Amino acid sequence: MKKIACLLLLAFAGSTALAQDTYVPYDPDIYRLIDRYQILYGREVPDLHTTVRPIGRQDVAALAEISARNAQTNVDQFNTQYLLNDNWNYTDQEDNESNRPVLKYFYQNKTDLYHVDNEDFTLRVNPVLHVEFGNDNQSDGIRYVNTRGVQLEGMIDQRLGFYTFIGENQVRYPEYVTRRIIRDNVVPHEGWWKPFKEDGYDFLTARGYLNYNITKHVEIQLGHDRHFIGNGYRSLLLSDYAPPAFFLKLNTQVWRIHYVNLFQELTAEYRRLSQDVLFDKKYMAFHRLGVQITDNFDLGISETVIFGRRKGRFELQYLNPIIFYRSVEQAIGSEDNVTLAADFRWDLWNRVQLYGQLMLDEFLLKEVKAGNGWWANKQAGQIGAKYINALGVNNLDLQGEVNIIRPYTYQHLDNFRNFQHFNQPLAHPTGANLYELIGVVRYQPLPRLNLTGKAIYTKFGQDEYSATDTINWGGNVNLPYTKRPSAYGHTIAQGNTTQQLHLDLTASFQLRHNIFVDLKQILRRTDSEITSMDLNTAYTSVAFRWNIPQRLHEF
Question: What is the pLDDT of residues 254-274, one digit of tens each?
Fold first, then answer.
């Protein structure tokens, strides 16, 4: 796969391309602003496609320019100026010149510690820092996050974009996160790790890519990063929960069409051993066709295949960018894991957005009609809404979402074909076998102050463990579906039925561009049928963040 990617880059190296842009790193708080102004003014930016994330800086700058002409409150003016400044090299409307550079060369603008901007070369260099201290009622001692790193991005010859992020981390997690680490042998969102002191974890976080415009409308991207498909709080297709993976991406935007091809090399299973051993590989091929039916209605259909081959070989037939993957899978022996999906986004009255997803892992109509709980009817669905300036209150935004995932969805015969990377789900962080209700309230009473309240209620089924075996009730994507107890009679949230309420109250103050202080209170109540342990959590924390998003553990 790496050789193929290099050949493609070389083949197009001499082609004529327009100015190329990098992407706004995926941060839910920043993308909340993009969503807000897309709902308010998106009809004036017909080429902005928000379902496939991250989104290009050039597109975000164009949206911010329109918002700047329409912003009516001090808060919206501040947010718009933030987006313009954060994407200053794609707009001439920002007010980003610094009045007080540091030592002449640093912070010459308000955004970047150091930058270069000329006709042939653009460079942005920024430090990364996340220092957090908290207290968890189920753990002894201070919980903390200590992340230091650097972020670089830029462009060469207005053709070749580049981005890299690297951070070194030492973390002591709240007890509910530690339980997940023990279960799956991985640190959530991260790859390789090692123990740190008594109950901490030490790991590197790294992302980076190159991107290049093949033509005016076709772009190629190569690197390591996360991706998010959807407009919801969760994604049932591909989320940012698992760690970054190596990928090759073709991005085509023309007329009202947005077509994406994404090929990823994934880690089939992570094992901690005393000696260095090459982890087994598997691969994912994904494509999505999005069409703007009208200026305010976007419809997408997508297909995903996950597969593994002996000695890590990539199946070359999946490189065909415009073929039906299911037909390829059948033609070569039908051993791979293919899923189909549809999604939509509908903006109404420049105030409301309706969105949803439907994913079919396996589907047999006669078994669905029979209603007898056949294990292989594996589907997932999402429906949600966003309400901007709710109830006539400026800068009060509401979001509600429902997610339903049947048992055994995302599972397969082995870890070479299930929907996980590095032992972590590629879609919903809880896995499957669940009902979920999400409510989010965001209020920005002052330009620099954001208040966010989240309530996530999940009813899900956990597996049953014994000294000799595990009964798979369909929630953990790492387990093979062959461990199911029966063929029929399966219902959502079966097994060790658990009800969980996760509450998050956060006040975030922006001291200056991309420098935040967060105060957070997390309350979790967990009731399980067969577990007598006290699983209720109260976690209070304060954090200082510089050019890095919040570290969230909402599972």
Answer: 989 999 999 999 999 998 776
